[in-house]
Every structure is written in C-alpha cells, then in structure tokens.
Design goal:
Elements (H helix, E strand, L loop, with lengths): L2 H31 L9 H4 L2 H22 L10 H12 L1
Helix pairs in contact: 1-3
Protein name: Transmembrane protein 65
Subcellular location: Membrane
Pfam family, one: TMEM65
C-alpha cells in the first residue's frame, strides 16, 4: 500500500473524528425531534458502572463508524499494481 493511501486513510480518520465531535449536539437535537428523550438520570445512576459502560460503548461504536466512513476515499484508488511497479523501478535505479 502506498504512502498516499495511508495518508488518505489518516486524513479521512481525522475528518470523521472531528465531524463526529462537532455534530454530536446536532445528532442529539435530531434524536430529540424524532421523539427520543434524553434520559433524566440521577447522580447515583450516572455513577453506576452500567451507565459508564453504555456511554463508552456508544462512543466507541460511533468513532468506529466514523473511521470506517473516513476510509471511504480508499475505494477510489486503483489496485496498487502501478504503485508497486513504480517502487520496483525506483529501487532498481
């Protein structure tokens, strides 16, 4: 895999993570408009291990989906055969 493919994946990952952070409030507002209510938790409920695990699991799933979407530009690159030929020619020179 060439340097540019790694660069594209890294930049896609950065953009998707930043977009996820920036759009979190909008997603919550949309969920509220769709009828999903924000849970009214007591401080004791917030401190429960089940709440913490659910929160972290939800964030992990969201970041994972964002990273996968961020790698979408890789579908537009070729199979890499040309890159391998160029690398072989450059290394023999």
């Amino acid at each position: 895999m060439s340097f540019f493919k790694f660069l594209a994946a890294a930049l896609g990952n950065l953009v998707s993570d930043l977009a996820g952070l920036g759009l979190a409030g909008y997603v919550e507002a949309l969920a509220s408009r769709l009828g999903l209510s924000i849970p009214d938790l007591t401080p004791k409920q917030v401190d429960m291990w089940q709440t913490r695990v659910s929160t972290h699991l939800g964030k992990a799933v969201g970041v994972t989906i964002g990273c996968i979407l961020g790698m979408f530009p890789l579908f537009f690159f070729g199979g890499g055969e040309d890159d391998e030929k160029l690398e072989m020619e450059n290394s023999s020179s």
